[in-house]
């Protein structure tokens, strides 16, 4: 985390000549020093995607006016969808977890080590089992047991808590309950899940059993944004490992755990760094 006084602009719009030059000219004319720039053109759909980050040290436009300038000078002219972020405004993350601790420990270890420009004030679970882990890291832990009769009521309380903690995005670290639209609609493309299979293969709660039954030779893990369609949201990242006839369900679960940890943490880092754009249930993930 080099310069902590930067602005990040994420753009997507209909592709046409001159967009890149217009954006960089705007930043340059206002004495912004561009630190990072990446762009991609989807030639099938003729859509332009871009991430640009610049230092604000000598930037002429006052911080609270930048969005209006971009809207007036660029967005209206090029029909842009854009989001503007500031590196000194740390996103606030909440983790949802059930009983499995491997992804939770990995996330807490990276947070504790200062790997990420993020605040992590809250953990929510449907079981009390992992509260001692949260206590170890000094993070608030709330338990909301879920069953089909109380899911709506409990999720309403969870949503209220997320608002109280001013949470910007949620990470499901092997949270084993299907979220309802009420919660998802409050955090569109801001809930990241780790699914323990190489999607679209073996969606659902027990992918390792299904993979073993099918006799696959590769298993994987998939990070994705959560939508109301189970395990069908925009994929952020995936990874795989080879298995053989010698692998049991238990050995697949063990090999899968390592994949789940790294695939989830990579996705969380890309989200925190504002390097993901979603478009038509797919993602553009910048390096
Ligand atoms: N709306 C969504 N919610 C969740 C998603 C998602 O993609 N959309 N992913 C899951 C995680 N997950 C797979 O990655 C998963 C978790 C749980 C289940 C499931 O069927 N759960 C049962 C209850 C199981 C239990 O009580 O142990 C259920 O909710 O009825 C499927 C997939 C997180 N949420």
From TrEMBL:
Protein's UniProt keywords contain Hydrolase: yes
Pathway the protein contributes to: Purine metabolism; IMP biosynthesis via de novo pathway; formate from 10-formyl-5,6,7,8-tetrahydrofolate: step 1/1
Keyword entries, A-Z: Hydrolase, One-carbon metabolism, Purine biosynthesis
GO biological process: 'de novo' IMP biosynthetic process; one-carbon metabolic process
Domain of life the protein comes from: Bacteria
EC number, as in UniProt: 3.5.1.10
Active site: 231
PROSITE patterns for this protein: ACT (PS51671)
InterPro entries for the chain: ACT-like_dom_sf, ACT_dom, Formyl-FH4-Hydrolase_C, Formyl_transf_N, Formyl_transf_N_sf, PurU, PurU_ACT
Record's catalysed reaction(s): (6R)-10-formyltetrahydrofolate + H2O = (6S)-5,6,7,8-tetrahydrofolate + formate + H(+)
Enzyme class: hydrolase
Span of domain ACT: 8-91
Molecular function as annotated in GO: formyltetrahydrofolate deformylase activity
Family: Belongs to the PurU family.
Functional note: Catalyzes the hydrolysis of 10-formyltetrahydrofolate (formyl-FH4) to formate and tetrahydrofolate (FH4).
Protein name listed in UniProt: Formyltetrahydrofolate deformylase
Underlying gene: purU
């Amino acid at each position: 985390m080099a310069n902590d006084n930067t602005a990040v602009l994420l753009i997507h719009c209909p592709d046409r000549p001159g967009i890149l030059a217009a954006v960089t000219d705007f930043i340059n004319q206002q004495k912004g020093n561009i630190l990072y720039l990446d762009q991609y053109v989807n030639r099938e759909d003729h859509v332009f995607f871009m991430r640009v980050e610049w230092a604000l040290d000598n930037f002429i436009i006052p911080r609270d006016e930048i969005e209006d300038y971009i809207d007036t000078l660029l967005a209206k002219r090029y029909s842009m969808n854009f989001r503007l972020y500031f590196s000194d405004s740390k996103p606030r993350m909440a983790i949802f977890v059930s009983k499995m601790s491997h992804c939770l420990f990995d996330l807490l270890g990276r947070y504790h080590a200062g790997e990420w420009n993020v605040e992590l004030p809250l953990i929510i679970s449907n079981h009390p089992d992992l509260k001692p882990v949260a206590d170890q890291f000094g993070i608030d832990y709330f338990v909301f047991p879920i069953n089909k009769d109380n899911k709506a009521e409990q999720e309403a309380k969870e949503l209220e808590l997320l608002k109280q903690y001013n949470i910007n995005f949620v990470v499901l670290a092997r949270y084993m309950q299907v979220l309802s639209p009420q919660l998802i609609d409050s955090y569109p493309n801001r809930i990241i899940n780790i699914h323990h299979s190489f999607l679209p293969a073996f969606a659902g709660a027990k992918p390792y059993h299904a993979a073993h039954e099918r006799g696959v030779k590769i298993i994987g893990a998939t990070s994705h944004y959560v939508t109301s369609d189970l395990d069908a949201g925009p994929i952020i990242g995936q990874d795989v490992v080879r298995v053989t006839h010698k692998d049991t369900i238990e050995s697949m679960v063990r090999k899968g755990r390592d994949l789940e940890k790294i695939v989830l943490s990579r996705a969380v880092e890309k989200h925190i760094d504002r390097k993901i754009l979603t478009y038509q249930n797919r993602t553009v993930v910048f390096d």
